[in-house]
Structures are given as C-alpha cells and as structure tokens.
Amino acid sequence: MKKQGAGHCPRKKEQNLYIYILTNCPYLFYCKKYILLDTTSFMMKTILSFYKNLLVMHVLILLIAVGATFASWKIVTLTIHAEKQRVFNQEKDQAAQWLTEKFSLYYSVLRSFRAFWYSNPHVSQSQWEKFVKDSGVISEYPGISSVFMIKRVQQEGARPLEQDMRRISNPAYKKYTIHPVKKDAEYYLGFYIYPTEGRETALGLDHLSIQDRQEKLFQARDTGNIMNTRETLLLNTGRPGFFLVAPLYDNAVPHDTVDGRRKAFWGFSAISFRSNELFSSIYGNEDPFPFLDFEIYDGTQVTPENLLYDHDRSLSAVTLSNASKMTYQQELKLDDNRWTIVFATKPNFTLGKFQEILPWIVLGIGGVFSAFVMFNLIQYVLQMKKIRQTKEKEVLKN
Predict the structure, then answer these.
(1) Single pTM value for the model
(2) 336-387: per-residue pLDDT in tens?
(3) CB–CB of 266/236 below 8 Å?
(4) 73-81: long-range contacts, CB 8 A cutoff, minimum separation 24
(5) pLDDT band at 32 (very low <50, low <70, confident <90, very high)
(6) For the chain: N or C, fewer Cβ within 10 A?
C-alpha cells in the first residue's frame, strides 16, 4: 500500500477546516481549549448544531425585544396620556368651580336687593340708591356695570309715571322719557339705576322692545327664578354684556301658580354685567389655563347666539373638539339657569418636551437593540452558509 503525500492528507484538510471554523466563530473561540483539534464529521455536526441553537436563541431574543419594545412604548404612551387627562380634568374642574363660586355670590347679592324691595316695596329712589351704594357692589365686584330695577307699567300708567320720575331730585331723572313708545300692550321700563352717569338712556327704556331679552324676562316672570339674559351690546356702554334679573311680585296677590305670578308681577331687580370684565375678574388678566380653551353658552344649545363667554377668541372650543384628543362638555345649573361649557385642549397642550418625546426614546432604544440582535442573526446565518460551503468544497476535493 502506498503512503499518501502530505499535500493530499484528508486528516490535514479536516484540521484546516476546523481551525477556520474556530477562527471565524466568536463563541467557539472562547471554547477552543476544550475542543480537540482532531476534527471528525461528528464534531462538524456538533458545531453546526451549536450554530443552529444560537440562531434559535437570537430569534427568541429578537421576538422578546420587539414585543418588549412595543409594550414599553404603549405603556409610556398611555401613562403620558393619563397624566394629560389628569391635568385637563383638574383645569376644567377648576374653571367650572371658579365660575360657580363667583356667580353664587352674584346671586346672593341680587337676592339681597330683592329682599330689600320686599321689605319696602314703595322705596324712594334716594333710599334705593343709598342701599345699593352702601352694599359696595359696584366698587368691589369687577364686571358689574350697574344695578337697576325694571317696572311693569300698563299703557294708562305710562304718562303719569314719566311725570313722577321727573320729580326725582337726581338730575339724571329730569328728562325721564319712555322709549320706544307703543300704542298698546304693557311696558317693562327701566325704573331706578345706579350709577346713573352715562346710563341715562337706560332710564325709561322698554326692555320688551329688545327681542333678545323678551324670552328670558317672561321665563323669569313665570317661574319666579333668577334668570340671565343672552349676551348683547349694552346700550349704555356699547360693550357686550348680559343681565341677571330677579322677578318681584305683589305679595298681596297669590302667586304660587304661573297665572298667579303673571297677575302679581311687579317688575325686576337686576344686575348688568360687562362680559369681558366679568370673566376676567373670575379667571384673571393673566391666563391661568394657557393650554385650555373653553366657551360658556346660555342654555343647552351650543350655538353662536347663545355664547356668553369665549376664553380664547382666536380659537373655537367647538371646532377644536373635532380634532383635539381631550374635550368635555359640561352643564352647570345656577338657580334655574342652565349653562353649557365646552372644554378643549389647545394644539400646544404639552406636559414638557421630554415627556412628549419619551415614547419615541423608548421606541428608539428598543429599535436599536432589536436591530443589533437582527444584525447578529444575519451574521450567524451567513457564517453557517460559509461553513457548509467550505465543508462541501473539502468533501469534493477528497
């Protein structure tokens, strides 16, 4: 039998193949001292099996990494949304609370004026003005334009009333004139007012001539409850405003039914508000809710004609509610008045730059780690392919 040459020794070729595998496998490099260099086909199968196990392990790691990344991103996103919702709820509740507290105070003031009239239904203009002035309501309550009384007068009593009012010593009443004049039906006339300066046109004004006020005046008369009128331009200031009116009745006439109240109706004790100044006094000149827009509507219908206050006139809470992630519509009941507040977050609503990008940071870190695992996975696939190709070449040579 002839001896094979050194250059054609199969054993030597298998050794070279094994050394190649060790050199190109980072995991086996650390284990090579435990592996004999005398490679066999069994050892080749073991090495390939080891690579397959690594592939399976990396696939599992990749799946876990992708799942954990998505779960972490979702949890962080939901947590930030929940915190935004908490801030939104806190601010809207605070805005509604301030409004309720302020108007509860105004209702109490108006009730005190009504009680004063009931205690002295024939009060003179000077006595009434002194009571209003001493209450401090004009000086201490920003947004109140005036306090006044409206008297119901039949056609036959209109002319005598004009003459009586002109006898009042206050110069503002010397030219008291009923306007606009009508030939039939009754009048709801501006009777007393304080302060009078700049408000002379309100004296003698028939409030039934203003269509926007009729419905609320009749509703207050029929229910006996304090009501607010819709927002309109105030005649004495030319600025937007509205009234709170408290109906007054002749206690000598039973008025526990609607018909009874209509018969016993005397007039109103009322407060006139300048809308912008009133709500600025509630919410301050510096916006305490920079990320919140809200609008207050009279009644339950959210329509432009029912708008009482717009917190940010450059935006519309109703329009924002179509695109905003956080909106809320709340109904407030003040005495017998129902107001609707529409809240919506502004486009710039944020908890902070870091909180806003935190979900993307989590997604980025998870994505980088997943990409690293994917890169190693591809490397091992290519490595196994090289090993198989090298083995096949060596087998063919043999």
Answers:
(1) 0.70
(2) 788 999 998 887 777 667 667 777 777 788 778 877 777 877 777 777 777 6
(3) no
(4) 73/359, 73/362, 73/363, 73/366, 76/358, 76/359, 76/362, 77/359, 80/351, 80/355, 80/356, 80/358, 80/359, 81/325
(5) very low
(6) N
C-beta of residue 252 within 8 angstroms of C-beta of residue 122: no
**CA distances (Å), origin 380, targets 274, 304, 315:** 77, 68, 58
Cβ neighbours of 134 (radius 10 Å): 8
- What CA–CA distance (Å, rounded) separates 222 from 265? 9
The number of residues making up the chain comes to: 398
Burial of 11 (0-12, 13-18, 19+ CB in 10 A): exposed
* Phi–psi pair at 233, nearest 5 degrees: -80, 125
Instruction: Convert the pLDDT of each residue in 51-60 to its tens digit.
Output: 677 777 777 8
- Residue 219: CB atoms within 10 A of its CB come to 16
Segments in 120-233 forming alpha helices (H)? 125-135, 137-140, 155-166, 211-223
Domains and CATH numbers, the chain: 9-72+357-397 (no CATH), 120-281 (3.30.450.350)
- E strand spans, the chain: 144-153, 187-194, 227-228, 232-233, 240-249, 265-274, 292-298, 307-310, 327-334, 337-345
Comparing C-alpha atoms, which of 387, 230, 196, 356 is closest to residue 291? 356
